[in-house]
Design a protein that fits this description.
Layout: H1 3-19, E1 36-37, E2 43-44, E3 61-65, E4 71-76, E5 84-86, E6 90-93, E7 97-105, E8 111-112, E9 119-125, H2 128-133, E10 134-139, E11 142-147, E12 151-161, E13 164-168, E14 172-177
């Protein structure tokens, strides 16, 4: 093996483990990494298994723009606990309202009813700076983001089962743009 081939192989082996599941903003949600096989072609992540349901190991949480039903962001699970958001950031026009619909999916990619009798959710600013740029309002499965000043922030979602938080998402970036 020549020196150039050796250096190239070393670079790949050093960067591959930290690359994870990156989103290039293209909207492409395809990826290939390990999940636990659920035995029926499903992918299961251990910390996505709850008392009443097992969430999809791929994209258990989706936000859709209610104006055109397009995907705004999707939360993606990883077995190493380093789950992440695809298609982020959420972009909210300054002075405008973006209304989204939250949907949850089980291990069979079937939509789960949201509410106090099953899985429910809360959404909130992930840090103090986020409250300076963004107001959040929830009505059932609808979440409205109001851009109150130009800037960047983050939101988190808590999934709740039987009154207890069973999963807290990683922060999802939100950009309020003029």
């Amino acid at each position: 093996m020549n020196r150039r081939t050796l250096l190239r192989a070393a670079a790949v082996s050093l960067t591959a483990p930290i690359a994870g599941c990156l989103n290039d903003g293209s909207g492409d949600d395809s990826h290939d990494h390990d999940h636990v096989d659920g035995g029926d072609g499903t992918r299961i992540i251990e910390n996505f298994q709850f008392e009443t349901v097992t969430l999809s190991g791929e994209f258990p949480l989706h936000l859709y723009d209610t104006s055109d039903d397009s995907v705004v962001v999707r939360y993606h699970g990883h077995p190493d606990g380093k789950s992440n958001w695809h298609r982020s950031p959420i972009e909210v026009p300054f002075g405008a309202l973006l209304t989204t619909r939250v949907e949850l999916y089980d291990q069979h990619r079937e939509q789960i009813p949201i509410g106090p009798d099953g899985l429910d959710f809360e959404v909130y600013p992930a840090d103090d700076s986020s409250t300076d740029v963004l107001e959040i309002d929830r009505d059932g499965t609808l979440v409205s983001f109001q851009g109150v000043s130009e800037g960047e922030g983050h939101v988190r979602f808590d999934l709740i089962e039987n009154g207890a938080v069973v999963l807290t998402t990683n922060p999802c970036p939100v950009h309020v743009l003029e």
